[in-house]
Design brief:
This protein is an alpha+beta fold. Helices cover 60% and strands 11% of the residues. Helix 1 runs antiparallel to helix 2, helix 5 runs antiparallel to helix 6 and helix 6 packs across helix 8.
Length: 356
Amino acid sequence: MTDATAPTSGETLTFGQTLKSSDFVGLGIKNGLLNMVTLGVYSFWAKTATRRSIWEKVSLNGEAFSYTGKGLELFLGFLLGMAILFVPYVALVILTVVNPLFMLLIIPFYVALIVALGAATFMAFRYVAGRTVWRGTRFKLAGSPAKFGWSYLGYFLLFCVTLGWFSPAMTMRLSGKLWGGLAFGDKKLDWRRSAKEGLYGPFTLAWLVGFFGYIGFIALMAPAMMASAQAGGAPDVALVGKLYAYLLVYILVVVVASAAYHAALMRAVIAAIRIDEVQFSIAVKAVDLIVLSLTNALILIFSLGFLLPVVEARSARFVLSRLSSTGTVDLSNVRQAPASSGADEGLADAFGISTF
């Protein structure tokens, strides 16, 4: 929590960035080719190179950040994460073949998976924080991955029971456990939510469009799919094309309808982060996110994924160019934070997720 005796003077925080899409084209081509040659093994080194390139082009009060993560750390962590996930799964399959009664373990197994997913999210955030350095001092994340994982499970169950309506509260509470536990060296950040977040208005629109859009999608496709099933034979190519066309329209409609909610969510999360007297804000609107999302998607599609670093740089520039702060913070006596584990992000990679 913020110290009640926090100083009334210090330095203001001004973010800067020199991110240009053109600077990341070559890196994207290099990463893509090496990923192809190594059958994806190079992806861990590619992720590290992209982060390092982005971090060094981002500054705070005129001083650049640096990223000290290593591709080998991510690769070894991934192998460990895969072992943690798949050894129990293979064991469960073998036990079920031996005795079908072991199928009763499937529910505890999936519960454990959800807890592990939450823990993986926490550990990935902790890894990136611990590998981010500014003024020679690294960031750190306090807290327990296990506790975060169990909280994630509880919130996920509430999400299911409420048919998704708990989603805004879930996101803000989990964000609070991450950003509220973050520190620059030994200088802790604080998490203070506003009473006027305004999340449920735009969320209601997104939920209604998603729900009724899905009902409409099923209503449009069901007669044709039933007719095709009754006819038997090979799948109808025209039907498959129509299915994908309707699905694409549905996704686009949901993305547009959800943009206002995601913009409000970004504003709420950023506004809740404090450090001493510094408060942050971000000027982002729904149309901004729609343009960013659609253009990033087009870049990935037409480059066959090769320009992923360009997309990540554009996303970072999008946030940083709209980020501002008020107030001051005393950073004169910050002490170094201990190093975090190099295997922290492995479980997240095994799940196929990434915090950054």
